[in-house]
Design a protein that fits this description.
Blueprint (H helix, E strand, L loop, with lengths): L3 E4 L3 H14 L2 E7 L6 H5 L2 E6 L10 H11 L3 E3 L9 H9 L3 E2 L4 H8 L1 H10 L19 H8 L3 E5 L9 E3 L5 H16 L4 E5 L5 E9 L5 E3 L3 E7 L2 E7 L5 H17 L4 E9 L5 E7 L6 H8 L3 H9 L16 E8 L1 E2 L5 E2 L2 E2 L2 E3 L6 E5 L6 E2 L6 E9 L2 H14 L1 E3 L5 H8 L2 H5 L6 H6 L4
The protein binds ligand MV4.
Ligand MV4 binds next to strand 8 and strand 14.
Amino acid sequence: MFNKILIANRGEIAVRVIRACREMGIRTVAVHSDVDRECLHVKLADESVCIGPAQPQESYLNIANIISAAEITGADAIHPGYGFLSENTYFADVCESCNIKFIGPSKITIQMMGDKSEAKKTMKKAGVPTIPGTEECITADNPKLFKIAKDIGYPIIVKASSGGGGKGMRIVTSEDSLKNAILTAEAEAKAAFGNGDVYLEKYIEEPKHIEFQILGDMKGDVVSFPERDCSVQRRHQKLIEESPSLISDKLRKKMGHAARLAAKAVKYVTAGTIEFLVDKKGNFYFMEMNTRIQVEHPVTEMVSGIDLLKEQIRLAAGERLGYTYDEIEIKGHVIECRINAEDSENNFIPSPGKIDTLILPGGIGVRVDTHIYAGYTVPSTYDSLIAKLLVMDSTREKAIARMQRALSEFEISGIKTTIPFHKVTMANDFYKKGEVYTNFIQKRIFNEK
Ligand code: MV4
């Protein structure tokens, strides 16, 4: 097992990793930027190193400084958390060359899954259902373009191969706008990712976003967990996740099998996620694979009773999984609300600043993962996530009531948050009925389109 882990991240996930390490008897090194000296992850770690100024490029993305911090402190592994360097192939490679274990899958897996069209090809070959569309990238001057599009059938979605966060994506309803959509998607992808390759897919209308947590060990064993429904999103930012989703047991079995096939196809080691789109008929399709621990991992921890951070670290150190997917139970119904420092009553504009007073909810069936405290100043430089509020109860209905109770206890002054949005959503009839698709916020909260 590792002796000392450096956490190349900040905020609640850095705190989460440190807590897992402490319980495992592993020493921890926090790294922080200039403005993060007073952060909880710095206070909770055994040691800390300042790695640069506030701008992420100069601190949390500064590979040379992070590697130096690991070498100076004698860390034998680096946990990248999510965001920042967590899916950076070059960083994983540098760690390896420096004899520091990168806690995640191999750099080849990160690279392969980072290319969306490549990932899709790999999954299709492995027998995982994929969305009908072009096998290879396509350009607007392709002489067979209209024929290819017609065969897929409109509506069509143009997607960037290197895409993410909805960038380089265009929906096309007829031939008239296809070429233009390809050209603008290419330009947007080129500007955002330095790679303008795009491909076409059948556009799935009003899908659910359902994802499966998976774990894999170095001997090739994998497990899948009960799924998370992450359909409540705004501009590709998830706001609410829950587990299990409202799919049938039969579909859960089929999708879980596909998720394990997907993980095995890339010899996946440590913790990852297979994302699917599910249409109204119950057809499901591979969308993407995330090669990191995700923000919403506690939803699965709570529903299964398994500590995913400890599992991830253990597996990265070469230990065996030791159990199978059919031994993992669904212990109740879990809902997570992401509390962001954003004014949800004013177009979700960022609301950084000093937290004057803070009362966190608690009691039976409640978990709060957070790095904030009264007197802490939320900087404007980083992600706006300040807390994850989770509840579990025996049924979805009871979980919603428990979430409403927990939200009503949550008091925070000095900054605006997404708590008002969550209160409205928990009381929304469509949400309560589970009629939630990826356009839920737009359609059912803001009554658009
Ligand atoms: C889609 C889709 C419908 N059909 N692909 C959004 C982000 C990127 N990872 C893929 N995305 C989508 N791909 C096809 N063929 C709809 C989306 C989509 C979406 C997916 C999951 C959650 C929220 C979403 C919001 C808008 C669009």
